[in-house]
Every structure is written in structure tokens, then in C-alpha cells.
Specification:
This protein is mainly alpha-helical. It has ten helices and four strands; from the N terminus they run H-H-H-H-H-H-H-H-H-H-E-E-E-E. It has a two-stranded antiparallel ribbon with strand order 1-2. A two-stranded antiparallel sheet has the order 3-4.
């Protein structure tokens, strides 16, 4: 048994060490093809809204309408959460809020990455690569840009909810970065797990993401409108990244995969190296 665990450990280390130079697969995290895919998605992003379908425009309009409509109730929602506090809600908030930051996301994506390499599991590998890309683009690029442009102070600053000071540092409310990251990860998990598990996990992953949104309001970190827009950005980017990379069908035939490169596989008491060219 010890030899099995040792072999698995060495196999994982070999993958982690060789992946950047040995493996050609855009859905494997930190490989050259993955970075090429990432750059390609960044180039496509600015022009993406000009190529939306009618349904996508309706979704975007719904997110915008929900965000604008929430402006009217932001102060009232905040007062409601201030008055209705409990140990249960506080514990729930503490338990889920880090699903929207590195404290939960980094270990989860790292585990998916290592598990995907160790067990040659494409779903786990893709969760890691899609989740990292979606989170970086949505919560690391788009949301911070809007935050800086909008210049809305956090609720605990004591300002009027509709006071915006564009391009002013230190005002990080609109939209919510935690909620953006949570829904980006939830969308990538949802899309990637559907082929294996159907849809039973869908309410679970989005329920956790909703818990993050609730925690940001409960902890007086954001307004309702902040989390609505954050959720919309995170879900849109996460779904786009995961669904786009899942499209292996072209005209009813499978898209040929790039099988070039070196692979390491357990063989007997050692490792077998295969070079495809």
C-alpha cells in the first residue's frame, strides 16, 4: 500500500513539474496551450457583447434591470439585515463567504488540478483551468475596473447609498468582488459536472454562491445592487469560459484533440513515458 501512495505521489510531482513543457492540452492548467487559450479569450472578450445572441442580450438586460431596480431598495435591505441578526445567520455567513475568495477557491482549484493530473481525469483538469481563468477575468479584471469607474463606498462607510465618486481610490462597493468570484466558480463547476452528474449539483453550487451574496449584505460589505451585478458578471464569464471550452462537436463530428507531447503513466512498479508526435 505504501508503494501505491508513493507511486501516486511521484506521478503527481512529475506531472506538476513537466506540465508546462510536456503536455499539449488547452484544458490542462499551466500548459503552453492553456496560456494560448487564455490569451485568445482575453482578445475575444472586448468584442464579445457585439456578437451576443438575442437570448444573451435579454439576460444582460435582466441583470442590468435587476441592478438598477435594486438601487431603490438598497437602504431598506441594509436596514433589514441590521435589525435581523442571529447566531445562525452569522455562522452561515462565516461558513460560505470565503467561497468567493482565495481561502476556499485556491484549495479547491488546486485539488482539482492535482487530482486531474494524478488520475488523468479530464473533468477535474478542466474545472481547475476553467475556474482559474473565469475567476481571474471576472473578479480580477472586469469587476475591479467597474469598481474603480463607479466609485461607490462600502455600506459601512456611512454614506448615502446612491453616492458615487468615479475614479476615486478606496471605494470598493459596486459591484461585489466576492459575489463575482463565487458565481464564476459556481458556473464552471455546474457546466463541467453536467456530463457526469446531470443537474443534481446545480442547486448546490449556486446555493453556495447565493450564500456568499447574502453574506456580503449581512456583513454590511455590500448593497443588494452590488451583489446582483457581481453575480451577473461572474455567472456570465464562468458560463462562457466553461461552455466554450466544452464545445468538442463541429458539424456533428468530434473536434480532433492535440495528442502531441509527452505523457507519463503508471506501469507495473514504475512509470511509462510515451512521446506522441
Amino acid at each position: 500500500m505504501k508503494n501505491v501512495f508513493l507511486l501516486l505521489f511521484l506521478y503527481t510531482i512529475c506531472h506538476a513539474t513537466c506540465a508546462p513543457v510536456c503536455f499539449a492540452d488547452e484544458n490542462k492548467f499551466l500548459t503552453p496551450d492553456y496560456f494560448k487559450r487564455f490569451v485568445g479569450d482575453l482578445k475575444e472578450l472586448p468584442s464579445k457583447p457585439f456578437r451576443w445572441t438575442k437570448g444573451q442580450y435579454l439576460i444582460a438586460g435582466g441583470i442590468a434591470a435587476g441592478t438598477i431596480g435594486a438601487f431603490a431598495v438598497d437602504p431598506g435591505i441594509r436596514r433589514h439585515f441590521q435589525k435581523h441578526r442571529s447566531n445562525f445567520l452569522g455562522g452561515l455567513s462565516d461558513a460560505v463567504t470565503h467561497f468567493g475568495d482565495y481561502k476556499y477557491q485556491l484549495p479547491l482549484l488546486s485539488a482539482a488540478w492535482l487530482g486531474g493530473m494524478a488520475f488523468e481525469n479530464e473533468t477535474l483538469s478542466k474545472i481547475a483551468s476553467d475556474g482559474a481563468e473565469a475567476s481571474i477575468i471576472a473578479a480580477g479584471m472586469i469587476t475591479p475596473l467597474i469598481v474603480y469607474v463607479s466609485g461607490r463606498a462600502l455600506p459601512n462607510a456611512g454614506e448615502h447609498a446612491m453616492k458615487f465618486k468615479p475614479f476615486t481610490p478606496g471605494r470598493y462597493s459596486f459591484p461585489s468582488g466576492h459575489t463575482t468570484a463565487a458565481f464564476a466558480l459556481a458556473a464552471t463547476l455546474d457546466v463541467n459536472l453536467r456530463e457526469t452528474f446531470g443537474y443534481w449539483h446545480t442547486p448546490v453550487v449556486y446555493g453556495i454562491a447565493l450564500g456568499v451574496a447574502e453574506s456580503r449584505i449581512y456583513d454590511h460589505k455590500h448593497y443588494l445592487s452590488d451583489v446582483i451585478l457581481g453575480a451577473g458578471i461572474g455567472w456570465s464569464v464562468g458560463y462562457w469560459i466553461a461552455a466554450k471550452q466544452s464545445r468538442m462537436q463541429l458539424g456533428g463530428a468530434k473536434k480532433p484533440r492535440n495528442e502531441k507531447g509527452v505523457s507519463l503513466n503508471p506501469a507495473g512498479s514504475g512509470l511509462q513515458m510515451t512521446w506522441r508526435f
